[in-house]
Amino acid sequence: MEWSLPAGTRFVEELVASLARGQHIVVVLPRPMSRTELVAALARRVDREGLGAITSLLLSGDESPLAALSSALGTRATNVRELLQAEPPSRVVSLTLDGRDSASWSAFLLDAAKQSQIEVRPSFQLCVLGTPSFSNIRDDLFLAVHRWWGRITQLDIEWIVQDRLEANPPESLAARYWIRALCRGLAISDPGLAALLVEQCPKDVEAVRGLLDGADYVSELLVRAPLDGQSSRFSPVRAPNCDPQKVLWCEGLLDWQEGHGIVVKSRALKPLHYRQELERRLWRGQLEVFLPLVELVRRDVCRALSCHFGGGWAIDLCRRAVGKGVDVDDVESEIGELAKLFGSLPRHLIPRPVRRAVLRWRQLRNELAHAEAVDYALLEDCVESYLELLENEAGSPRGLR
Fold first, then answer.
1. Global pTM?
2. What CA–CA distance (Å, rounded) separates 194 from 328?
3. Of 106, 103, 70, which is closest to residue 88 (Cα–Cα)?
4. How do residues 330-380 score in pLDDT, each as one tens digit?
5. Please, what are the domains in the chain?
């Protein structure tokens, strides 16, 4: 899935650029990510750029890197120099090294880079796919290391959500915004979870927990590893910087995202029975998605009042208000002040759709302001009240989408 996203496309472009410069490349990926799909995407791009073809080799046994690669290429090379001059099946040779000794292969790759630089022009380039155990290998003039770390952005998650919503429209407008809030808060750097949330649309925290998977063994690692908030939210570190973090990254449970820093993915929280954190993430997503809607509703309410009472509606209604404490400027800029104004006026004076929309959305705003996640029933009621407001406002050009 990742390789069809904007982040995946950019990553493949980086790999192709390194190959075009004549470098061998090491690609460091979390274990759950598909190597086959990456090689297929890379092969298509390499062919499009006129760089030849890619051959994927399957290494067997526990031989040394030189012996294993020589056997796979059908040559009898006795050193790295001879190997790099062997007749290759294609210009780029892809190897998947998950589970192999990263230290010996790192040394081999650095030697290959050195030989390519000072002694021999290689007849092929290596594209090595490994897990985060290879994360300590360093770049060289003829060796480029590309890590899948901090690559997924909020744009990628939004891209998935929009694509899935267009393919399978939700049951209602409220469900659409509920899904967006779920994905914004819970699917941080996790495209798979975003797709699952769109498909299932869980309506409460327990339903969300039912969708999350994870192994019990991650609990101890999560306790031991310095996690959320450890690194800058805006300046990514090159890779996880302690062993527990490396293991979690290897399992696809840890990542870095701008605005969040190093984060544990939501699917890793279930083994910890971390309901409080799930609720906090759900609330944060709702805050980002629902608050702009509150402002949209307020503006349309003001327009409806202007149509009903005239351009000076705020001054007129404030003069009619029973009691004190209602300010004209506040009434026009805050939905809470509108609700306060309506409470000090005769009930029949304000059109029912206007009053209902203000009271419902004020309740939603207040729950978010008190760091409480809004339940689905309230959101559904709020959206219904707003649609009723629009139906009674002739020719309204705006509305939720």
1. 0.83
2. 43
3. 70
4. 777 788 888 888 888 888 899 999 999 999 999 999 999 999 999 999 999
5. 2-147 (3.40.50), 154-273 (no CATH), 287-391 (no CATH)
